[in-house]
Amino acid sequence: MRRALSNTTIADRILFFILIVVSCAGMFYSRDALSQGTDVVIEVGGKSVYATSLDANREIPVEGTHGRAIVEIRDGKIRMKEARCDNHICMKQGWITQGTIVCLPNSIVVITGGGLNKDVDAVTG
Amino acid sequence: MQLQDKYRVAILSAYALALHGFEAMLPSPIPWLRVGLANIITLTALLLFDFRTALMITLIRVILGSLFTGTFLGPSFILSLGGGVCGTCSMGIMLLMSRKLFGPVGLSLIGALFHNAAQLFLAHWLFIQRIEAVLFISPLIILIGTITGFMNGIVAEILVKNLLKKESDSLHNVAQA
Q: Most buried by CB count within 10 Å: which residue of A66, A101, B18, B56?
């Protein structure tokens, strides 16, 4: 093992370090780049009606099955501000940055964060 | 192709297939994470013999291996074939360009890099249309590929050295007798 290690050429070692450094840097870079562009998708009855990001502060009116609900985005967080339903579970959930807010009576689902990019999977051999 | 070449390809392919099958049985923390043990045989064939032998072993290994595991012509077969051929070609071209610049470890690193690059490209082209998902996963895959490629290169180097030593020993014995 040690003899094999000492037999590596200089180019071998340079290549190894370059690859390690570049891939580690790429991991941090891609993580930063993705966390800024977090997506928000609002679905009503299973259909996507609104797609945006958490970057800009705004209030989004959503037409649910029980009337109008208001989704608010502020400082990179999102909450259900108003909804016409009985128990207001969605509003009690408060501000979130990742995950889902569900308003069952209104059939409104708000999805945000990394959960949106999960359609990746391939098995290789 | 001479008869001896056929034997050589058959034996090396059998080794590669055995490693390929063994690897498929290993538990893996992430489903698509593979060590690429069969690449040791490809690299050994490339160093001891020539590029044509190595490419043929890769093709036989990928096609027969997918038949054994039941993934022939499936998505994983396409990724495996593209990665295997691209990795072998990159190592072959690098060895053709310079025999002194890179040792087995460097060649293995290059092979692993191009193997992963080809797989990511194919995955983006055929299966995942979202470029940001592919870009997000590629540094991780290349990092893992570098580490496993490094280990494979060391094993291949030890293997090649011992095989050459054995060969010269037996030649020496024959000369003495």
A: A101
Count Cβ atoms within 10 A of the Cβ of residue B42 and give its class: 0-12 exposed, 13-18 middle, 19 or more buried.
buried
The pTM is what? 0.69
Residues of B in contact with A5 (CB under 8 A): 154
Rounded Cα gap, residues B41 and B111, in angstroms: 12
* Winning range, highest mean pLDDT, from A65-79, A97-111, B62-76, B143-157: B143-157
Q: Where are the alpha helices (DSSP H) in B27-130?
A: 38-48, 51-69, 75-97, 104-122
Confidence check on the interface: ipTM exceeds 0.90, yes or no:
no
User: Can you give the residue range of the structural domain that contains B105?
Assistant: 3-176
CATH number for the domain that contains residue B7 = 1.10.1760.20
Chain A residue numbers with beta carbons less than 8 Å from the beta carbon of B140 are 23, 27
Cβ of B146 under 8 Å from any chain A Cβ? yes
